[in-house]
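One record is given unchanged without comment:
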Amino acid sequence: MNDDKTIIEFKDIVKIYGKAEAKTYALNKVSLSIKKGEFVSIMGASGSGKSTSMNMIGCLDFATSGEYLFDGINVEKLNRNQMALIRRNYLGFVFQGFNLLGRTSALENVELPLIYRKVSTKKRKELAIEALNKVGLGSVVHHTPAQLSGGQQQRVAIARAIVTNPLVLLADEPTGNLDSIKSVEIMDLLKHLNEELGITIIMVTHEEEMAKYSNRVIYFRDGHIEQTLKKGYK
């Protein structure tokens, strides 16, 4: 799904860490755009700028200079509270380490973002069950993470990320802790969420095989975009 609306746009983004001799350009005049409904992978070696870019997109950090537009909003002009509202209301996050609460059920883990939104208890449960069904875990809603496989735990994390119906899902090495079979299952799920539900997905990965699931791959090197390749589903 792609309606040609640009949802993420960097205009000459610069991010500098340190001062004087310790000054480092994590990003050096990076410009990019991502359209609604795209599935984009970001790749690059350690220190290339890919993680810094993801932090910027996720409203977790400010640029030193340049403009970042999120759905037309100039993020660089927002304060930290306003950036937190964008994260809470429009972004979903999936991490390599799952980040689930160990003593709570899958259902309760998925409900967490809705608590911050002050959604009623009844509605929270309905939405959480719906999200778990979307990732194929409707039968294990009351299981704790210890009762689930690594792949199932990541599915719970994905359900938690999509339960708020975000504009953009940010996935940081989502298959990094999984074996090859479970990795393929997670990538098939992300591809399904992108194609069937139209969720815009931006994924950081170091694995070419996983990047092949996306529509486009952006390669970073030394704070610059080295190249952008369009790829088809494997």
Summary: The mean pLDDT is 92. The longest strand covers residues 6-17. The chain is about 35% helix and 30% strand.
